[in-house]
Amino acid sequence: MMDYQTLFATALGLTPPWQVLDIKFSKPKNRLDVWVGFPKGSTFTCPACDQAGMPVYDTKEKTWRHLNFFQYRTYLHARIPRVKCSEGCGVKQIQPPWARPGSEFTLLFESLIMVLAQDMPVL
């Protein structure tokens, strides 16, 4: 039987080392919050030079608006790592696979908005 974390990780299209850490549901607030993270000791690829195997230097907590799960507003929360590249690139922030740089929305949420914007008035 599949647990909630595995179900949501599959629905979100997460791949290792990313995994669902926690899920909070509030029916009164009409809201679902999903925390995504990675196991201690995970390594990432340097976003500047593509060198793999860089250890995490530090992290920054971020939140993105995601597509609704059924009628519930859904938000993704994650500690996004920075790596200190051993190839001399310095400290660089990893780009999560679910969002564009600087965006407060997931790629899937942005895609939905683009489709809706084609047929709806923007105002």
Give a brief rundown of this model:
This protein is of the alpha+beta class. Helix content is 18%, strand content 41%.
Report on the structure:
By secondary structure, the protein is α+β, with helices and mostly antiparallel strands. It has one domain. The chain is built from two helices and six strands; from the N terminus they run αββββββα. Strands 1, 2, 3, 4, 5 and 6 form a six-stranded mixed beta sheet that branches. A hairpin with a 4-residue loop joins strand 1 and strand 2 (31-37). The model has no long low-confidence stretch (mean pLDDT 94).
* Apparent shape: globular
- How many discrete domains? 1
Give the oligomeric state.
single chain
N-to-C terminal Cα separation, in Å?
A: 46 Å
Structural class: alpha+beta
SSE string, helix = H, strand = E? HEEEEEEH
Which sheet architecture does the biggest sheet show? 6 strands, mixed
| Number of H- or I-type helical stretches | 2
- Beta percentage is 35-45%
Question: What is this structure's SSE topology?
Answer:
Elements: H1 4-12, E1 19-26, E2 31-37, E3 43-44, E4 54-69, E5 72-85, E6 90-93, H2 107-119
Parallel strand pairs: 2-5
Antiparallel strand pairs: 1-2, 3-4, 4-5, 5-6
Name some characteristics of this structure.
2 helices; 123 residues; single chain; 6 strands; 6-stranded mixed beta sheet; alpha+beta
